Amino acid sequence: MDIADLIDRARNGSFRAAGRLLSLVESDRRDEVLTALGPAPVSAMRVVGITGPPGAGKSTTIAALVSVYRERGCRVAVLAVDPSSPFSGGALLGDRIRMTAHINDSDVLIRSVASRGHLGGLAAAVPAAIRLLQTIGYDVVLAETVGVGQSEIEIAAVADPTVVILNPGMGDAVQAAKAGLLEVADVVAVNKADRDGAEQTVRDLRAETDAPIVKLAAARGEGVAELVAAIDAHHRSDSRARRLARARAQILSLAHTRLRARTDLDRLAESVVDGRDDPYTAAERLLAPSTQQDREP
Ligand SMILES: Nc1nc2c(ncn2[C@@H]2O[C@H](COP(=O)(O)OP(=O)(O)OP(=O)(O)O)[C@@H](O)[C@H]2O)c(=O)[nH]1
Ligand SMILES: [Mg+2]
């Protein structure tokens, strides 16, 4: 079936067509899909990034958010980035259970995305997936990443807002700050607030970030309304300057991915190690326009 047909079907609500298109977007046929989609439609689609340490309650929070957005009549897509990562070991089954309320809802699409494919990873696949979801009529995308590496930074480049989920516990706030997690936070949620120490963690966090902080017990549905209010408020206050900053981060991330994929990188590294080039010259060479066969597909 050709891509234009799939797009039509997906627009008309076909899950199977949407799934096929998302697979194509992760494959080397991504550009074909993007071309068929045409220019980005004017759409108020929201992309909410949910990130945080393993087990912080990201999926539980997403399940609660899905309910809220469904009550508003939104079509919702959940992208779980790299759920097979060693950090969330086997969480996919658990996520199924947390998402049971939504599994038979034809307006909720749940999809996992591998962050380290051969085609430039998350930085390239997720914006394309988002473009696709926007064109086929989704109103909200909730994207889950484990906040332990590059992926949450890449998500933050496209998400508005990025919610960082932490838990009560001594040192959590400081650790999150150290790990650079708070830098990507537009909203911070202290989940598992039914446990001791939530107030203290909120106080510690206030010293580390200007982002709004909400207390959450996602598993009990407590604080979810406050979280949604913070997400809504952030979206309204989103400025051109912030959008420019996000676009810059996204461009840099994509450019970085392209540079890493250059086949001459290894050759340049050898010439530096062998003393034929210095790293500055090698960097210049890496940035120089390459011939087509220097690039990966
Ligand atoms: N006490 C308490 N436990 C919670 C709360 N929210 C989630 N949990 C539990 O925390 C565990 C992890 O929840 P998940 O939602 O899978 O966390 P996650 O951040 O998506 O985990 P990974 O994807 O594996 O990184 C589960 O056992 C949840 O039941 C909460 O508000 N209070
Ligand atoms: Mg999860």
Structural account:
With 297 residues, the chain is of the alpha/beta class. It folds into two domains: 41-238, Rossmann fold (3-Layer(aba) Sandwich); 239-289, no CATH class. The protein is 49% helix and 13% strand. The protein contains 14 helices and seven strands. The chain has helices spanning 3-11, 15-25, 30-37, 58-71, 91-98, 100-103, 121-135, 151-158, 172-178, 198-206, 224-236, 240-260, 264-273, 279-287; strands spanning 46-52, 76-81, 108-113, 140-146, 162-166, 187-190, 213-215. Strands 3-2-4-1-5-6-7 form a seven-stranded parallel beta sheet, with helices on both faces. The longest helix is centred in the last third of the chain and has 21 residues, at 240-260. Residues 85-91 and 292-297 have low confidence and may be disordered. The structure holds guanosine-5'-triphosphate (GTP) and magnesium ion (MG).
SSE blueprint:
Elements lengths: L2 H9 L3 H11 L4 H8 L8 E7 L5 H14 L4 E6 L9 H8 L1 H4 L4 E6 L7 H15 L4 E7 L4 H8 L3 E5 L5 H7 L8 E4 L7 H9 L6 E3 L8 H13 L3 H21 L3 H10 L5 H9 L10
Parallel strand pairs: 1-4, 1-5, 2-3, 2-4, 5-6, 6-7
Helix pairs in contact: 1-2, 2-7, 3-7, 7-8, 8-12, 13-14
The protein binds guanosine-5'-triphosphate and magnesium ion.
Distance between the termini: 23 Å
State the helical fraction. 40-55%
Number of strands: 7
Shape by Cα distribution: globular
Q: For this structure, what is the CATH homologous superfamily of the largest domain?
A: P-loop containing nucleotide triphosphate hydrolases
CATH class term of the largest domain = Alpha Beta
Number of helices: 14
**Low-confidence spans: pLDDT under 50, at least 5 residues?**
85-91, 292-297
Architecture per CATH nomenclature, i.e. the level-2 architecture of the largest domain: 3-Layer(aba) Sandwich
Helix/strand-derived category reads alpha/beta
User: What proportion strand?
Assistant: 5-15%
Biggest sheet overview? 7 strands, parallel
Work out the radius of gyration.
20 Å
Protein name: GTPase ArgK
Keywords: Chaperone, GTP-binding, Hydrolase, Nucleotide-binding
Enzyme class: hydrolase
EC number: 3.6.5.-
